[in-house]
Design brief:
This protein has 622 residues and is mainly alpha-helical. The chain is elongated.
Length: 622
């Protein structure tokens, strides 16, 4: 059963009937409940114990972004000074919404669609979460397929990106650690500008700007075999198609048997990355130059805080790293016991999440400092974010380490583990939402439905592993689940709870579960602070929007149009659904009265309590 004995004094009606004793291993139900009710509880399932739930939340929220995005944002946006806007949004938006989503799922015991019977006009928020999760499931897993490819390439005596003697290398390829030994000179043209040339191998007078390195060539010409643009998709990269298939197979078997099985999988997928991260941390801080990298990561530059974009990026990072508005937190919370102390759990998980992000910075920038010293370059030229960090900077750094294939394999294994549980928890949120919405058709065939979702997503995802797939990935990353979309839904969600449902009713619901009112700060956030700050950042995102690009490649105009249409599938779902519900709901009152009517809960409160109480008495056969 789901853990947590806190909140035993919560004012929850125990429901009719007494508990009938039964031998170990049998199914126990409360007297007075129908067989159909008991069967539905057993079919949906609950966590075997509290630790399963905690580790699932750890795996869900702590992912690739903690390693490849947060440390770089700190460096880029003022080092330690970036923690000020980051912690501001953690306290004003991240933690309140995290707690709210877990509690909402736990109270109603339903996914991100059916929980909005608490305020039917807001159900569009649930549809938006499902749509965003759908897009995210397609492209986030592409990072896993790249990491798996690099992991398998690392299982060799020599890393293939360590030299320029391969079929994919160009004649201008030079190892970055060997550039200082080249014979180079500078020539002036027309007394206006200088050009630097070098002699390499059998070539002379090569422009230094034309020199390439084996790490970048392995990424572009071997792994991606990237085409000139999105208009030239090329062929499917069969190696990446296979690693993508492997990633989807792993995801399927992590969730196919329900939360009891998933709760056991996360013991490995959530904890093992910490072991690998600690090993890489010990190795990193003992490298020459590590101190310089860590210094650049931490030293505050308070002047950066004057930039509005720094605050915008901090808000987006909080929304992403906390896995908000995707439906996964609601889904994971829905499998809890009714009286689980979700308040304590949420505060603990938010602390672990932010702490992991901060710790990852030491792991990454100790190696970045080492790489800068080895290449005789400033930190600014070797620090990177996103794919640039994972598939360019770190592979370059490990080349100088003894037994480099081992360190490379450990890094990419950590990467796979970090991404895997985030991926399958997001899929779980997507599946739970749809199955709970149509349980009559899908509950009994859940395994087949999960397989169908995975297969469909795999085939759509093949567009990201063609030779032009990187451009498709960048398109989805920039539009389908953009920070603007996440922040917009965060704003709508906080307004729904704080104003339409009402904080008074909401905190009473929480008290029913945990036995006491949460700290008044969260009440203030739900009603005032969170809606205000998220709305402000959302508007700033619209005003300061810049069309995305990949390196120096500019997307055609029609691609940006497609991107905006993808974004609008998420952002417009709540208002469109609310308007549709308003139009189809009969009524003779004023428009305000009709709006309030469809905002009122359609929840049988006693049934909710009895359902959860009976769920606590169900012993589900393993």
């Amino acid at each position: 059963m789901a853990g947590g004995d806190d909140g035993k004094n919560a004012s929850v009606d125990t429901g009719p009937g007494d508990l009938e004793m039964a031998p170990f291993g049998s199914t126990v139900v409360r007297k007075g409940l129908s067989d159909e009710h008991a069967e539905s509880l057993e079919a949906r399932g609950t966590w075997t114990n509290h630790f399963d739930f905690i580790l699932s939340l750890v795996g869900n929220c702590i992912g690739i972004g903690n390693v490849w995005r947060f440390p770089y944002l700190c460096y880029k946006n003022g080092g330690g000074a970036f923690l000020i806007p980051y912690l501001f949004f953690v306290l004003c938006a991240g933690m309140p919404l995290y707690f709210m989503e877990v509690a909402l799922g736990q109270y109603l015991g339903a996914g991100s669609l059916t929980v909005w019977k608490i305020s039917p006009i807001c159900k569009g928020i649930g549809y938006a979460a499902v749509i965003m999760a759908f897009w995210l499931n397609i492209y986030y897993i592409i990072v896993l397929c790249w990491a798996l490819f690099y992991f398998f390439m690392s299982l060799s005596s020599e890393l293939p990106w360590g030299n320029c003697n391969n079929w994919w290398n160009q004649a201008t390829c030079i190892n970055p650690y060997e550039r200082e030994n080249l014979s180079c000179w500078t020539e002036m043209y027309n007394m206006t500008y200088n050009q630097t040339f070098c002699d390499i191998k059998n070539m002379s007078r090569v422009l230094v700007t034309d020199l390439t390195d084996p790490i970048k060539e392995f990424w572009d010409r071997r792994a991606l075999q990237i085409s000139p643009g999105i208009d030239e998709p090329g062929t499917i990269r069969w190696e990446l198609a296979l690693t993508l298939l492997l990633a989807w197979i792993m995801c399927y078997f992590c969730i196919w048997k329900g939360v009891k099985w998933t709760g056991k999988v996360v013991y490995f997928t959530a904890l093992f990355p910490y072991v690998l991260m600690f090993i890489l941390f010990i190795r990193g801080v003992t490298l020459p130059g590590a101190g310089t990298g860590i210094k650049y990561y931490l030293i505050p530059d308070m002047s950066k805080l004057k930039s509005i974009r720094v605050w915008m990026e901090a808000c987006s990072q909080v929304g992403w790293s906390y896995a908000l508005v995707l439906g996964s937190l609601i889904a994971l919370g829905s499998y809890n016991k009714f009286d689980n102390n979700c308040y304590r759990d949420s505060m603990l998980l938010c602390t672990i999440n932010s702490g992991t992000s901060f710790f990852a910075g030491f792991v990454i920038f100790s190696v970045v400092g080492f790489m800068a010293e080895q290449q005789k370059k400033p930190i600014s030229e070797v620090a990177a974010s996103g794919p640039g960090l994972a598939f360019l900077a770190y592979p370059s750094a490990v080349l100088q380490l003894p037994v480099s294939p081992l360190w490379s394999a450990l890094f990419f294994l950590m990467f796979v583990m970090l991404g895997l549980d985030s991926q399958f928890c997001t899929i779980e949120g997507f599946i739970t939402a749809i199955v709970d919405q149509w349980p009559k058709y899908l509950r009994k065939n859940k395994e087949a439905f999960i397989a169908a979702v995975c297969i469909l997503s795999y085939f759509i995802g093949l567009t990201c592993v063609t030779q032009g797939g990187m451009y498709v990935f960048q398109l989805l990353d920039s539009y389908a689940a953009a920070g603007m979309c996440v922040i917009g839904l965060m704003c709508m969600e906080s307004i729904a709870i704080g104003w339409l449902i009402g904080v008074d009713r909401w905190q009473e619901m929480i008290k029913e579960m945990i036995g006491y009112y949460p700290f008044i700060w969260w009440r203030i956030c739900w009603k005032y602070i969170t809606p205000f700050v998220t709305f402000t950042v959302f508007i700033l995102n619209l005003i300061m929007w810049e069309n995305p690009k990949y390196v120096n490649y500019e997307f055609p105009t029609y691609i940006h149009v497609i991107g905006w249409l993808i974004s609008l599938t998420t952002l417009l779902s709540p208002p469109i659904y609310g308007l549709w519900l308003f139009l189809v709901t009969p009524g003779t009152g004023t428009w305000k009265e009709r709006v309030m009517a469809i905002a009122r809960p359609e929840v049988d409160w006693e049934a909710v309590k009895n359902k959860h109480n009976s769920a606590n008495d169900v012993i589900i056969n393993a």
